[in-house]
Write a structure and sequence with these properties.
single chain; 186 residues; alpha+beta; 5-stranded antiparallel β-sheet; 1 helix
Length: 186
C-alpha cells in the first residue's frame, strides 16, 4: 500500500465515524424532548394530587363539630380522690349525624403508664365507656367510632362527654394528661 491508499483508507474510516456521530446526535434531541415532556407530566400530576389532597382536607374539616380546640389538662392526685376527670357538657346535643369522636392526648411524665376512660352520657340515663390502654408521652391522635360505645342506643340527646383517669389505671399517684382538639366527625 502506498501513502495515497493509506490516506484514503484513513479518510474513509474518519468519514464513516463522523457519519455515525451525526446520527447519534440526531437521536439526542428526541431523548431531550421526551425527558422534558415527562417532567411536565410529573409536575402537572403533582399539582393535581396536591389540589385534590387540599380539597379532601377542606371537606373533612367541614364535617367536624369541634368541641374543645384548646388544650385541656387533667391534673390528677389520688391522695384523697380515686379518680379525676375532664368533662364537656353537651346540653342535649344531637349526635345522630356523627359517627366518630376524635381528639389528641398525651401524658406529661415519661415514666408513667396511664389508661384513659372516655365516657358518654345521654338524657335517657344511658352511660357507655371506652378505654385507651396507654396514653403515650407525645401527642397521639385518637379516632373512636360511636359503635364502640355499646350501651348508648340513642345519640339524639347527649348530656356529657368525660375523659377520666382512675387510680387503678395509673402507675403513679399523681400526674398530668393533656387533651386537645376534641371533635365529632361524620
Amino acid at each position: 500500500m502506498d501513502k495515497k491508499d493509506i490516506y484514503e483508507h484513513l479518510a474513509k474510516i474518519y468519514l464513516d465515524a463522523s457519519a455515525k456521530k451525526t446520527e447519534e446526535k440526531k437521536g439526542y434531541p428526541y431523548f431531550k424532548k421526551l425527558f422534558f415532556f415527562s417532567l411536565a407530566i410529573i409536575f402537572a400530576l403533582s399539582l393535581f394530587l396536591i389540589n385534590n389532597f387540599n380539597k379532601d382536607r377542606a371537606i373533612n374539616s367541614e364535617l367536624a363539630l369541634i368541641l374543645q380546640p384548646d388544650v385541656a389538662k387533667i391534673n390528677f392526685n389520688f391522695d384523697p380522690a380515686k379518680k379525676e376527670s375532664y368533662s364537656v357538657a353537651l346540653s342535649k346535643l344531637n349526635l345522630t349525624k356523627y359517627k366518630t369522636l376524635a381528639f389528641s392526648a398525651k401524658r406529661i411524665d415519661f415514666n408513667d403508664k396511664i389508661a384513659l376512660r372516655i365516657e358518654f352520657n345521654n338524657s335517657f340515663k344511658e352511660n357507655s365507656e371506652f378505654y385507651i390502654k396507654e396514653i403515650p408521652n407525645k401527642w397521639q391522635e385518637y379516632k373512636i367510632n360511636f359503635v364502640e360505645f355499646k350501651n348508648i342506643t340513642d345519640w339524639s340527646e347527649m348530656q356529657a362527654l368525660s375523659f377520666i383517669v382512675e387510680q387503678w389505671n395509673a402507675k403513679k399517684s399523681h400526674g398530668i394528661i393533656l387533651i386537645e382538639n376534641v371533635r365529632f366527625m361524620k
